[in-house]
Amino acid sequence: MPRTVNSQISFADWELLQQGLTLEPLLQAISDFLDDQKEMIEAVRRDLQRGLKKPATGRNGLTPPQVLRAFILMRVKNWHYRELRERIADGYTLRQFTTFYCQAVPKHHAFHRAFIRLTPKTLKAVNELVVQAAVKLGLEDGNRLRVDTTVDVATLCYTSLSL
Question: What's the pLDDT score for residue 23?
């Protein structure tokens, strides 16, 4: 797990920032909103370190801002893990949004392992923040709720057989 929330940028990262790339308006608004959410980043950091015997040792992993931004990007764009990894690796603006810049983008398994460490309490807070940001930006009114009603095929088969 990462030892610091914000790591020092490299010369390659600095050069990328000097290129003048701009995010799409939605991602820029989300990025600006997330820059002010220090307590949410701290909650993600606590979740990532939860259960580790020595969280201050070992190799550096995904930083809490990278996990939070990648998680939100995955949900906003409705991508699966492999597509999330490929899109971030291929796009300069998505690298900028997720703060990977010129670093190697980890494989999709790393995103999955990081996302499943987030607690339901943190996920609820993230969802509330995203809805608040969408209402503030005028993208949503926040009155309707969309629910995913996907049913596991094995559960469906077991239920139909038991009848």
Answer: 84
